Target: Cobalt ECF transporter T component CbiQ
Amino acid sequence: MTGLAVDDAAWASTWRPRAVGDKLLLTLGLVLCALVLPVWPGSLLVGLTAVGLALGPARVPARVFARAVRLPLAFVAVGAVTAVVQVSTDGIGWAPDAAATGGALVGHALAGGAAVMLLATTTPVSDLLPALRRARVPAAVVEVASMIYRLLFVLLISMRTIREAQTSRLGYSTARRSYRSSGLLAAAVLTRSWDRARRLQGGLAGRGMTTDLRVLPEVLPSSRSFLAGTVLGLTVLCGLTVVLS
Model:
């Protein structure tokens, strides 16, 4: 268990042994369909397909998938509101085509977000980083992503340790104490994480680590049947959209 619910779900998913390229092809295809196809019924079909694959064949827990999409849903809601509200000399009001614009924005965003979450809940970051290197993504970008991923666990461990100590001292027994303990927790986590990151950098530099940290990636074989099913499924999805629209 890594402490990150999405990462834990990815490691436990039945699709984890599948090649990253296979899952990337499926995800990119669904995202492209979500962007290109009309909201009705294209985005609806894409969203249902992504959720169905995640909860069905991939065996991602429904609770984890629902928690993973909460923040994207909030972001989409805020974006939809800003897109349908207009400011003029008469004041603030709804745009003339508010319903159509807001519906299209929400539909495309939710469908594409569900497709991306399908990849996130079935593919650990440790599998994605070697795939990015093989795709010739700049090494600096991959290294920054790798360092941020490692520092997340430093933050989680620090936060969990400090919060347990505060709870044992009744730091959250009242609203006033909770407010004060939360501020102290944020300050302590940031300073401790910064110190640990600095020591990690110093240790790597002392060992002569002047380039990116390379590891031996696990080779996951590609599946021709999965690729064929992906192409066939995307084709059927596009065909259904044309027929039903």
